[in-house]
Design a protein that fits this description.
Order of helices and strands: EEHHHHHHH
Radius of gyration: 22 Å
Helix content: 40-55%
Largest sheet: 2 strands, antiparallel
Number of helices: 7
Distance between the termini: 47 Å
Length: 185
């Protein structure tokens, strides 16, 4: 259970994390909230940390990074989140629990690769937000990841494969694919 101080300011909800049960008990949380209300009334409330970002905000912050690998990755993250995590985009990160993540992963079991990729993207966005926000460890730690198996497709046209590998941004990925081709991994 997470305890917050919440106030509506000019039509927007402002929320400040007080603490999590059992570390912060109800009486202590109540006293802290009264202190926040008093501070806010005197004009000091603007200095309080205003909670954690929503998944949508954290995702946009992650995708805005200049060092993000490629536009294809940006598109993939947006697509997977819109397709599989749309109902979470407005949730503050600290309200997304381990049980929610495990259940979502399990509900996508019919397509194990998208399930794992979507929640690995989620973990990446979470860890990026963790750099500047007070968050617990990523709830994806509770997931039993699905084993990913190759689909068995065969390279029909080596020149098309070469062009696709040459267009990869990451030189390590390029080297891996060339190594895998030569050594038939």
């Amino acid at each position: 259970m997470t305890r917050y101080f919440q106030k509506h300011v000019r039509g927007q909800t402002r929320r400040v994390l007080i603490g999590r049960y059992p570390i912060i008990l109800a009486d202590v949380a109540r006293q802290t909230a009264l202190g926040f209300a008093s501070d806010w009334g005197r004009g000091v409330g603007k200095l309080l940390q205003i909670g954690t970002p929503t998944l949508g905000t954290a995702t946009e912050s992650y995708l805005a990074r200049p060092k993000l690998r490629s536009e294809a990755r940006r598109s993939a993250v947006r697509h997977q989140f819109e397709l599989h995590l749309k109902d979470w985009l407005r949730l503050p990160l600290d309200e997304i629990t381990k049980s929610m993540v495990v259940e979502r992963h399990r509900s996508m079991a019919a397509k194990p690769s998208p399930a794992s990729h979507t929640l690995k993207y989620f973990r990446t966005v979470w860890n990026h937000a963790l750099r500047v926000h007070e968050l617990p460890e990523s709830p994806t730690m509770a997931i039993e990841w699905y084993e990913e198996r190759p689909n068995g497709s065969i390279i029909e046209d080596l020149s098309v494969w070469r062009k696709a590998v040459d267009e990869l941004y990451n030189p390590i990925q390029k080297a891996f694919y060339e190594f895998a081709l030569v050594h038939r991994l």
